[in-house]
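Notebook, bench 3.
Goal today: get a predicted structure for RNA polymerase sigma factor from uncultured Sporomusa sp so we can plan the truncation constructs. The sequence was checked against the plasmid map this morning, with no discrepancies at the termini. Length recorded as 194 residues. Pasting the sequence as submitted so the record is complete.
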Amino acid sequence: MGLSEEEKLIIARAREGDSAALNALVVSHWPYIYRLALSKTSNPDDAQEIAQDTFLRAFTALPRYKETNAAFKTYLSRIALNLITDYYRRRGHAPPVVDIAEHSAGIIDTGLQPDEAVIHAERRQAVLKLLALLPDEQRKVIEFRIIQGLAVADTARLMEKSGAAVKMLQQRALKKLKELFVENGMEGGKAGAR
């Protein structure tokens, strides 16, 4: 993925203190960072504070920022995830499992009839419950790779693992999810009667 030439230019200008460039980075990345924080905290005020702190830390560290193959969004995500970890450490408990996809898209007309929509929502909730049963690292890799759609390299950076380790974790997580589907009567992604 990496940085586009345009984003490289904006970051270079932001390093020089160009307020328009700093604003462009915020406008471009704020929605994603806010949704990430909201998905992890379920509290709009806390999510906004974490998003603000993310940009404050990123801009404070911008003179030391080193360009890598990762997108700038990945850099911001790592900062946000560290702040979210601190948020839960202060509160003494772990973050809830939330479907990040719910926060990354607007309202979409699926064309489903009301009864179909209810069944779809029930299946989605069942999948989220099964996802919560995965070990922490497997759950995270599914969230990053499948729900957020991040590339292997970006996921590896966020999880501080190699690309091969991320692929292996994903493979194990999907295998475990499949087993959980079968155990819970949801073969083929369809809820069955138990």
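The chain has nine helices and no strands. Residues 123 and 191 are 7 Å apart (CA to CA).
Flagging this for group meeting.
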